[in-house]
Amino acid sequence: MEEVSWQFRKNDRAFLREQMQERVFSLSRSTQEHFEEMEEALQQEKRNLEDQANEVAYRKRKASLDEREEKA
Question: I need a labelling partner for 50 at 20 to 30 A (CA). Which of 2, 5, 20, 68 fits?
Fold first, then answer.
């Protein structure tokens, strides 16, 4: 009976280990997916900000040229 009890505990530990390992892998995958989504969102935000900066620079150059033409 002791041997059966020992085997049961041993198998139970293996089962718990497998469960914990699966949980860790699952959390790791979801964390990785979350970071990838955040990276994509940040890249999009960066592109939007660069577009806005380019638009501001364009308008500034245009205003400067318009001002020069008015003085001439």
Answer: 68
- The Cα–Cα gap between 45 and 19 comes to 39
Give Cα separations from 38 to 15, 21, 32, 33, 49 (angstroms).
34, 26, 10, 9, 16
Share of the chain above pLDDT 70, in %: 89
Supply 58's token pair. 């364009």
Predicted TM-score (pTM) of this structure: 0.63
Please state the φ and ψ torsions of residue 31, each to the nearest 5 degrees: -65, -45
pLDDT tens digits along 31-65? 999 999 999 999 999 999 999 999 999 999 999 99
HSE toward the beta carbon, residue 27, CA cutoff 13 A:
6
